[in-house]
Amino acid sequence: MILGADHILPDNYLERVIKRMSENPQIVIASGVIDGEFSVTVRGSGRIVKAEFWKKIGFFYPVNYGFESYLLLKARSMNYDVVLFDDIITSTQRKTALSYNSKLFYNYGQALKALGYTVPYTIFKAGLLFFTKPLGAVYLLSGFFSNYDQYYETEIREFVKKQQNHKLRHLNYDDVKRFITSMHYTTSLSHKQQNS
Q1: Calpha distance 29→71 (Å, rounded)
Q2: What SS3 state is found at 107?
Q3: Beta-carbon neighbour count of residue 149 at 10 Å?
Q4: How far apart are the C-alpha atoms of 62 and 67, rounded to whole Å?
Q5: Residue 120: pLDDT over 80
Q6: What is the mean pLDDT of residues 163-180?
Q7: Whole-number Å distance between alpha carbons of 54 and 70
Q8: What mean pLDDT, rounded, does the chain reach?
Q9: Contact 102, 139 (CB under 8 A)
């Protein structure tokens, strides 16, 4: 289990998540959600990882930008499932890192590059981000196009490339709406956090 110091779990959190994971052997990573926060994928904190999966990948958690996403992508590239249980609610003592500064957006761009994000997908992502955080989009692209060269293994990068090319070819209104909603939610929480 991966857990942040200020993340508060309900008494039966482990029991509920592990029970659901045991009902489907394909699920190797899962988590609940944080009350009041928008999530579309398994959280970093509160994440439960099956021991057999950890063992299969050599108990490996890389030291590189994008390390949290790496574990999810690695599982999916091996045809396992990662699941967010949106009815299992947790809380935190403070909001998660929503007020990104320029350095964090730059590092995020480097993470996308390390994970094998494609140029069109990254430009699309930055383009949508531009509507809510214009400077963030610029820094993201600066990080992505930097000379950073610490890449993840070819298997992951090829999986990401294939997945993103498929997504761009089959892009629909709901995908764009979901991303814009998540960015709007992040921005509004960031403003509330800065003003409190």
Answers
A1: 9
A2: helix
A3: 8
A4: 6
A5: yes
A6: 77
A7: 13
A8: 85
A9: yes
Confidence of residue 4 (pLDDT cuts 50, 70, 90): confident
CA distances for 3 relative to 9, 31, 32, 192, angstroms:
9, 11, 12, 25
Nearest to 133 by CA among 109, 164, 160: 109
Q: Roughly what angle, to the nearest 10 degrees, separates helices 119-130 and 154-169?
A: 60
DSSP 11: T
3-state per-residue secondary structure call for 68-104: HHHHHHHHHHCCCEEEEEEEEEEEECCCCCCCCCHHH
How many CA atoms lie within 13 Å of 107's alpha carbon, on the beta-carbon side? 9
Which of residues 164 and 38 earns the better pLDDT score?
164
Mean pLDDT, residues 2-24 taken together: 92
Locate all alpha helices (DSSP H) within the chain, ordered by sequence.
Answer: 13-23, 51-56, 67-77, 102-115, 119-130, 134-144, 154-169, 173-195
Residue 126 tokens, joined? 């930055």
> What Cα–Cα distance (Å) separates residue 28 from each residue in 54, 64, 76, 164, 182?
9, 22, 9, 22, 25
Q: What is the pLDDT of residue 194?
A: 39
Which amino acid is present at 136?
Answer: G
Pairing assessment for the beta strands 27-34 and 7-8 based on DSSP bridges: unpaired
The whole-angstrom separation of Cα 119 and Cα 124 is: 9
What is the C-alpha to C-alpha distance for residues 182 and 151, in angstroms, rounded to an integer? 27
